[in-house]
Amino acid sequence: MTRLLLIGTPGAGKGTQAARLAEAFGIPAISTGDIFRANVKNETELGRQAKAFMDRGEYVPDTLTNALVRDRLSQEDAKNGFLLDGYPRTADQVTELDHILAEQGEALDAVVQLTADTDEVVRRLLNRAIEQGRADDTEEVIRHRLDVYEEQTAPLIEVYSARNLVREVDGLGAVADVTERILSALK
Ligand code: ADP
Question: In this structure, how many other beta carbons lie within 10 angstroms of the beta carbon of residue 131?
């Protein structure tokens, strides 16, 4: 398994699991959210453009996000595989990823859908707000991010299911247990 996507609601634990899976498979974990946050922190032009959307819990426009991922996937370390965390999140991003992979003669191996119920994810995100102070982790913005996910990203599961790529994994429980579940779902 070398070309993987990780999909799930905000707070499902994607970032935590992405790092562990990347390690297990020897591939880079590519998180669009992390890349955007690094750009905001470094006050780049991309960061300046992305920040207002992120602070409101809106998706960054596809044109910006797609360009970022195209560039990242062209780098040497992604040639033999990658784990995308938080991309694609819109139908347009699915199309763009299809194009990028087709151009390179590659295909996805699997899409891991990490599930967690709403009460638990809100609890986790409010906790993270206290620990990390992320600007988009206020209760109001969290609820909005969950709505945006349901509206724009949840339908993508159907798209990938139709391609027989989706492995659904329960994201509740100890971190190491969830990783084990994902690894066995990918076998
Ligand atoms: P979350 O777990 O809340 O989804 P992320 O760190 O993955 O957090 O993303 C944080 C923010 O970065 C998103 O709310 C959005 O504004 C922006 N972002 C990340 N990935 C994408 C994407 N694929 N398309 C558009 N916006 C994105």
Answer: 8
Which residue's CA is the closest to the ligand 1 atom numbered 9?
33
Catalytic residue among 3, 14, 37, 181: 14
Give the torsion through C-alpha atoms of 36, 42, 47, 51, to 10 deg. 80
Integer Cα distance of 15 and 34 in angstroms: 9
How many structural domains are present in the chain? 1
User: What CATH number corresponds to the domain at position 120?
Assistant: 3.40.50.300
Full residue range of the structural domain in which residue 119 is found: 2-186
CA of 32 to the centre of ligand 1 (A): 6
For 72-99, the pLDDT digits (tens) are 999 999 999 999 999 999 999 999 999 9
Concerning whether 14 is annotated as a catalytic residue, the answer is yes
**How far is it, in rounded angstroms, from Cα 18 to Cα 3?**
12
pLDDT digits (tens, 9 = 90+) for 4-15: 999 999 999 999
Token pair in block for residue 178: 């969830």
pTM value is 0.94
Q: What is the pLDDT of residues 108-156, one digit of tens each?
A: 999 999 999 989 999 999 998 899 888 888 889 999 999 999 999 999 9
